Amino acid sequence: MKMLTRAIVLTALAVGAANAQTTYTGCHNHSEQGASVEYCFGPDGSESALATYAVSGTATLPVSASATVTATGAVQTTAVTDCHSHETAIFCINGAGSEVEVEATPTGEIPPAYTDCHSHGTEQYCSDPAGKDVLVLAAAGEEPTATTGDGQTTAVTACHSHETEIYCINGDGAEVQVDATPTGEIPAQYTGCHSHGTEMYCLDPRGAEVAILLEDSNTASEAAGSAGAEEQNQHCHFHAGVEHCTGGGESEEVSCGLEEREYNVGLRVGTLFVILVTSAIGVFAPMMFNEIPGLKDTRIAMTMLMVVKQFGTGIIIATAFIHLYTHAELMFSNECIGELGYEGTTSAIVMAGIFLSFLIDYCGHRYVAAKEARGKPGAAAAAPAIDHHAEYKGSPSGASSDETHRRMLLAVDHHHGGGANTKLSVSVMEAGILFHSILIGLTLVVAGDSFYRTLLVVIVFHQFFEGLALGARIALLPGAIWPGKFFMALAFTLVTPTGMAIGIGVLNSFNGNNPATVITFGTLDALSAGILVWVGVVDMWARDWVIEGAELLHASVLKTLGALFSLMCGMILMGVLGKWA
């Protein structure tokens, strides 16, 4: 017995001397083929069979000290932690941060960890809280590349919220979304991150699993889809060669430099004549209509001109508010001129245009009244009174009746002081139209080819309707067409093509985002809006409908409804065109 004890001690000393420089931990025995094998973990985390003992009676004899056996995938893994279940299987996190399956059937509460991990050949085992070995299986798809990227993610940290979503930072330093609804305070981190196939999950402070969605991959398809939807919902059009978009996304950075676009110069030269002809037809048609033999100065002609005149009133009012005022606001909100120090800039310039129109109108009244008082003393007293109810009382038939109706229309048109005042009012109206018409021509030409044809159709209708509005007012002025009326109509006919010709000349050098250009266009649009607001609301709308002596104040129901319908049509049609120009 003493000899046997001495042999065991000497063997132990020999083994200890051979491993004097190495510290082993987690030593344990396994019975293999009738012998007891002692395994321990070295400093590198690998398990080694240090000694084999033969069991005989009450003594255990050492047989050999064998080589190192490395547990595959178990480097630096002495325990698997953060254990949890997926349906009926148990999963834990190993030392590499990957999820591994534990071959044990959950009965009752799942252990938080399995310790004393070691390998038998190529298989890894760990011990449960009862000291029983359980097999640890490496999970398939251990590398969750779709979520974790190249870096190893064992936890997501620096968690925060964007509106109602929770975001954290993963091991790559990228922001990822946590598929959890924030209730109360957001956790600072989610730990125990692991993968199921290509998906990543982490554990919240209560141990519940939450899915981790990579920000880029999660939002890429949504961004692509939403970008397409936004592009479809966007409505883009040009002002002074600058593309403006409404609806959808408008977050793209604006470039204030000269943008290169495709310009079909031949197309633009050809369409210049289209605009010229359209403008001429619109403005000269009412005058020509009143010159048709058999219709000149008749009740039918005057009624038709009245209907066109109310349509023109609607056109002018819609032009002032929807086209000019709105576009001036767009110009002054252009990012290239920065933030205006005074928010009411556009309204202030519009108000200046209204005041300027009022001043011209008022001074014209005073001048004409003074001139008539000096030239014809008592003329006003001698002038026959106009009976606005004449159409209800009956009148001589034929030409004399039509002439009486024409004189009545002319007498109540705009002013009661005679033809000079009426001509002044129409001249102020035309000035407001000419101001912005030259800008319309320039804007049309410098628009890119992608939008040019659409804008051309809109401008053709715009010029025709505006020509009708102006032509109807010119036609009701006293006197012959030549020369006064003709040149007033000719000015409108030529102004938009002139703007187009200027645009063609500066096509490759015009920068609609230049601050000076933007401010100039915005100022002229706002000033023109103010002029047309005064002319449209006061000189046209109010004087035709509500001011004492107005043509429609005591008109028949049928005539009133026809005029009202025409007025509304003008507003609606020009308002619809404002969607594109």
TrEMBL record:
Residues 1-20 form the signal peptide. It is found in: Membrane. The chain crosses the membrane at residues 265-289, 301-325, 345-364, 431-448, 454-474, 486-510, 516-537, 557-577. Keywords: Membrane, Signal, Transmembrane, Transmembrane helix. Pfam families: Zip. GO terms for cellular component: plasma membrane. This is Uncharacterized protein. It comes from Pseudocercospora eumusae.
